[in-house]
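Hey all, sorry for the wall of text incoming. These are the two entities for the joint prediction.
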Amino acid sequence: MAMDMDEMLQKIKDRQWALAEIDWEAPGAETISEEFKPKLKAFMADLCWIENVGARGFAAMAKKAPTPTIAEIYRYFHAEEQRHANAELALLKRWGMLEEGEIPEPNVNIRMAIEWLDTYADDMPLSVLGTVIPMLEVALDGALLKFLLEEVHDPVCHQVFEKINNDESRHIAVDFEVLDMIGHAKARKLAIDFVSNVATPGLIIGALMYIPLLNRIRNNLVDMGLQPEKLYRAMDRFEKLGNRGEYTHRVPLFQVLRVHAAMVVNPQHPYHLLANSMVALSERYPRALFRPIPSWFRELTYEPVTRSVKKGMNAA
Amino acid sequence: MTIPVKVHTTIVIGAGFTGLGTAIKLREAGIEDLVILERADRVGGTWRDATYPGAACDIPSQLYSFSFAKNPNWSRTYSPSAEICAHIEELAARFDLVKDIQFNTEVTKLEFEKREARWAVSAGPTTYYARTVVIASGPLSDASLPSIRGIDEYQGAKILSARWDHDVDLAGKSVAVIGTGASAVQIIPEMVKVAASVKVFQRTPGWVLPRANRRTPAVTKAVFERLPIVQQGARAALFLGHEAAATGLVWNTPITTLIQQVGKLHLRVAVKDKWLRRQLTPDFRAGCKRMLMSSDYYPALQRDNCKLITWPIATMTPEGIQTSDGLRHEVDAVVFATGYDVHLDGPPYPITGIDGQSLQEEWSGHPQAYKSASVHGYPNLFFTCGPNSGPGHNSLLVYVQGQIEYAVSGIRAVVEQDLRWLDVKKTVQDKYNVSMQKRLRSTTWMSGCASWYLTADGFNASMYPGFATQYLRQMQDFRLRDYEVASHAAQRLWNIPADASLQAVG
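and here's what came out:
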């Protein structure tokens, strides 16, 4: 049965939470060992920036939502991804991994994702964004968060991620519902959308950005001791959830991402040679070529309550 | 023994611009027996109440005034509210209207008494009677706090833009402004000058065009004073300029796109940051919602003590506002620049028609009238700012002037032809509204945005789909044949019972 989007929007409005509801000084921070801290900091920084990148994706989707209610839902999801990123920063702060006013540096692949989003996302059709975003959400929800909760025993961290997980489950439900709606469109429109975008710089550069980003995360996780199977299981979920929809299989990009996911989850696949060399290459990407970090990227904060005006606390 | 009640020729409800304008024109037409009911203790209407910092009209004052009661001394192109209110007070004095105004008299009920062919207008315990009534209570006269989650829990000062509380001193305070519409773009540039910090909570950005608000040179005022024809010429030029804008603001055309390009250029020049520009770029056609006119709004937003917040408001808390990005903003005061309670379903007091029917009920779905002024079943009642009378491109007062002229023609017909009543024919009203809705289809207002012009189900019962010139022409053409009329003479001649049904004599 189709989801009642008005009901979903109401549910979203009813379940808003604030950083201030969490006692960031509560005991438990000491459970993080000193040797684990640098790795956890890098992991959390990635996670936090990926949430922020996802937020920007929802901002783009709000502009092309098929109904005003879904546009409003995406407006909330945009904010909620930002909330997750803020909460993750606050955890970093709680664990003593951030100096006063410090914001962790985004890695080069994240920088590329930012540039891509800022340049192309608003012009991408819903059928592209609406397929890529669920993939990222599933991977995040399924792998990164589960892994974190297995490795970290700080009760505050668990409290935070319980809230984040609840939000994410609503995101994923809506994502796949919309993906199914996209698939319901006329085959001709789907084909035109796909063909007209597959050859655009936006999508080509997008793929060049997405492939190493995903593999870098995969490699980082494996370095930290995550069994890659967990990530793979998460990516399988993308296919499973998509196949539950009546029309999702008709979305061409869904099929592309499904096949791509199958390559990613197969460690023996020659794809990894390509993807890993792209990770290595991206490391050599001259930093001077990056444009200044957009101001939306500087809005993250670990401060639950503000009184005065702070224009991007991590602004230079 | 029954005491005969005084039945006036006309009751005018409201002593704002419209009410006083109606009274002036009624007097001019020789109708002296009128009473104006005003809920406040002085004249001025919306402009008496709109005292928020920066309050001003966003149509040039030369056009935002009556052509039959001009003011040569407007201080600026766009005059501040206090000056507009002073002008309205001056009109009341100049035309000696105060003697006809019953102040502190808030209308609570209107009922047509068929047998006596008169309107009973209740104001609390007192009832006034008149053969005709003009509703001039204005479209933007009521305002209330919006329904935001947790609003009752907030402990700081709550200030409604339409009813500014001047007892609250905002100097050096942290202030939140909710809303970014016509009032907000005037309030925010003033707030950033006095408050320590201003957080602006935006839901939907509007199209903002620059506004050149120049001081009127003394020589111009002197020329206007001595040569009214020059002032008339200036007014005519402004009128035509605004009429031209209808081609883009009323109808959804390539000119609309051109206006958007001007809006985008204004944004591009005024705002350096790309993301802030994106946050401020509207996603609806120009004209679909009210155009905003300001040259100091964008600079104000970029001041160090001001921040635009576009996250949804999750709830208000005792200390301030919680947004959906999980943050809480503590503030000393919240300014609700959330507009007015627009009564699309009729005035906020019950109106009962000739057969006991309720206007509010009839209008609860899709309000409609004939030429925005008459409604079938409510004889001798004239609306101003009625259904489908709003301009999207020109001065409201130009339209009001047309409505006044129409009401005066109707009232003259009642008086001069000794009519018991005139009631617009249902067929005429229906035909008019079919045409209105058909013409509305190609307008910017129906291009897909949600606005206060539309009812919840997207019906447009507020805007007039055309040039002001077209609207004025239809209002100048009062046709008795469009009405069912009952005359006193016929009743006397044929000895017809007073409550007999209507008969057409047109």
